[in-house]
Amino acid sequence: MKIKFLGGVGTVTGSKTLIESNGTRILIDCGQFQGIKPLRELNWEPLPILPSTIDFVLLTHGHLDHCGWLPRLVNQGFKGKIYCTSPTKDVAKLILLDSAKIQEEEAKKANEEHYSKHEMAEPLYTVEQAEEVLPLFRVIKPNEEVFLDAEIFAVYSNAGHIIGACTIALTLENKTLVFSGDIGRDNDVLMFPPTKPKKADYVFLESTYGNRIHPNTDTKLELETYINNAVDNGGTIIIPSFAVERAQSIMYLIWQLKLEDKIPNIPYIIDTPMGISVLDIFRNNRKWHKLSEEDCVAMCKMFTMISDYKETIEAIYNKQSKVVIAASGMITGGRVLSYLERYIGLPETTLIIVGYQAEGTRGRKLLEGATEIKIHGKYYEVKANILEIEGLSAHGDQKDLLNWLSELEAKPQKIFLVHGENQPADELRIKIQEKYDFDCEVPLLGQEFEL
């Protein structure tokens, strides 16, 4: 059996792990690279094998860094089945169509305004190509064996993180390979705790926060303080947010603060068409999260939901203090850029970062103290107050990741640390070896192993 790491190593994006066994090829996740230019350029590179020779794709969840390369895979000849949970199918559909639409719009804008270095800017894939992925999805139920053929089967189990996210245990050649996907936290606002694996010969463990412990702070109190301080200064609060789970978690906390009369009576806006659509996925998949039907309805009522871009423009030019939750979470695209063009240069503005910011993204640059940022080919001076709430992360920290390994009944032959930048992955490797004496490896992009 051969394992080849085609993405999601040395970085938190582009997750793709290829398994070859007795003539069968299985791809775990098919993510898009995000962040710095050398990573983004990898999205245009062909895979080292023909996509038409891959039999199955198993998706852990629907985030872009785990499913966003599927349109390229299908366009280049993949015709197999894509297995995932029901919420993951719904989330992936939203994310792929939105990603394609944004790429088409950005390519069009770059061509019209001539700020692309290419003669003709092209989207990585089109909406039409994204739609060609959808008929290949096959919905599976968690905790049930899914047979890919007579001797290969997979079992999905809850990973927390976002709605529908799962860890995948793949059994083949009498070995069990456990792919963690992205591991959520034991005390998430909306998600249930992740299920810990009991048996694994090989583990492929994410290491996003392998070198960090999330602060034990009161995230609701932080949100309350930041909102009140900004409003007292006559400013607007902008919260760039991932449209899936994070936007809903922030809505929930803000709704609770409003119920408790701890924040002022100003407009609370959710301006992410995808984030609004995700609320429907929450309503239709009640077993996957903690939010009751009644709370969901009440929470939605307090927010102004913006889908039409004309309403976005009206909100941007309304001088009243307001709280805006807008995608994208790493400020790489989407509606949040329109708000920042207007507000990033105002000292009374507060920008609250609430999630992981990959290397090279605008969000990471702002956290690291950038004095100007580039949006749509133009530079804007940063005068806004840039703040971070770390306690809202949907990724487990070092302690959570170590704890996730705690119920393994026997020592695995090897643990591969993936989905992490080099330092977090290496620090987690040391901690796992100290605590469990497990053999750990931090693979390189393109590296192949025989198991």
Question: How does this structure look, described?
Answer:
With 451 residues, the protein is of the alpha/beta class. Helix content is 32%, strand content 21%. It contains 14 helices and 22 strands. The strands form 4 sheets. Strands 6-5-4-3-2-1-22 form a 7-stranded mixed beta sheet. A 7-stranded mixed beta sheet has the order 7-8-9-10-11-20-21, covered by helices on one side. β20, α14 and β21 form a beta-alpha-beta unit. α7 packs across α9. It is globular, with a radius of gyration of 21 Å. The mean pLDDT is 95.
Write a concise synopsis of the structure shown:
The protein is α/β, with parallel strands linked by helices. The protein is built from 14 helices and 22 strands. A hairpin with a 2-residue loop joins strand 9 and strand 10.
Which features characterize this protein?
451 residues, alpha/beta, 7-stranded mixed beta sheet, 22 strands
List the helices and strands and how they pair.
Elements: E1 2-7, E2 16-21, E3 24-28, H1 37-42, E4 56-58, H2 64-67, H3 70-75, E5 81-84, H4 86-113, H5 127-131, E6 137-139, E7 145-149, E8 152-158, E9 166-172, E10 175-179, E11 202-206, H6 219-232, E12 237-240, H7 246-259, E13 268-271, H8 273-284, H9 293-301, E14 304-305, H10 309-317, E15 323-326, H11 336-343, E16 350-353, H12 362-367, E17 372-375, E18 378-381, E19 385-388, H13 398-404, E20 414-418, H14 422-436, E21 440-441, E22 448-450
Helix pairs in contact: 4-8, 7-9, 10-11
